Amino acid sequence: MSFPIPLPHRRGPAKLLAALLVFLALAGCAGQLETVRTGTVSPATLETMNQLNMDRRAPILVRIFKEEKVLEVWKQDRSGRYRPLKYYEVCRYSGVLGPKKQEGDHQAPEGFYAVAPGQMNPKSREYLSFNIGYPNAFDQSLGRTGDSLMVHGGCRSVGCYAMTNEQIEEIYGLAYEAFAGGQMEFQIQAYPFHMTAANLQRHATDPNLPFWLNLKTGSDLFEATKTPPQVGVCNGRYMFGAAAAGVCTVPPRAS
Questions:
Q1: What superfamily in CATH does domain 13-208 come from?
Q2: pTM over 0.90, yes/no
Q3: Which residue, 7, 129, 190, 195, could crosslink 150 as a Cys pair with Cβ 3.0–4.6 Å?
Q4: Which one is catalytic: 9, 29, 152, 234?
Q5: pLDDT one-digit tens code per residue, 168-216
Q6: Measured distance CA(201)–CA(193) in Å, rounded
């Protein structure tokens, strides 16, 4: 069987308002504070949007690269394609290259995730945060455990991607404005490194190589189309594009 992973799309004002009310009411794993914040997009970033022919409330997509310690925010321009809007240096992530597999391994997740308004935490003790969505359908199909894996402020990490407070202020603001513009979810693509042939060759002996080659398929599709790929899960692998909508057979477990 296949397990579709939700992708960004638009919905009506009434449903969006309900989602945003949930968003503002949420107090997530990182604790609670009194002040509710929505983030702030800087004037310089707004000017970049104007130069790139982007609506302020257009959909976004996030890519994270562990080895390079970079978080990228991409935004849809008026042609419908996504373009890189801004790059942020990841202040800290815990663990090493490779996916998160179990509770307590202190690994930051790798894979394809989706963030909806209900995963945003405006009352985070770590200034602002949002839940990546681990474990997703892929992680669950492999029996992986753990929860509440975040992108947050505070520059300290136990299994999360930590940014500075100034950075998360803007990243959070970009997400909030995209939701206000009608985006239901934004996709996060979390990678060990940029998925080039040279980087994969450097890690050719790593036991995670088959998993990373699977991620590369999705990365290559995004690079080719500049739109978030449709993502599904089949037999312990990510499926992308048309293949994500297909049906596959999950082999029986050995008794």
A1: L,D-transpeptidase catalytic domain-like (2.40.440.10)
A2: no
A3: 129
A4: 152
A5: 999 999 999 999 999 999 999 999 999 999 999 999 999 999 999 999 9
A6: 12
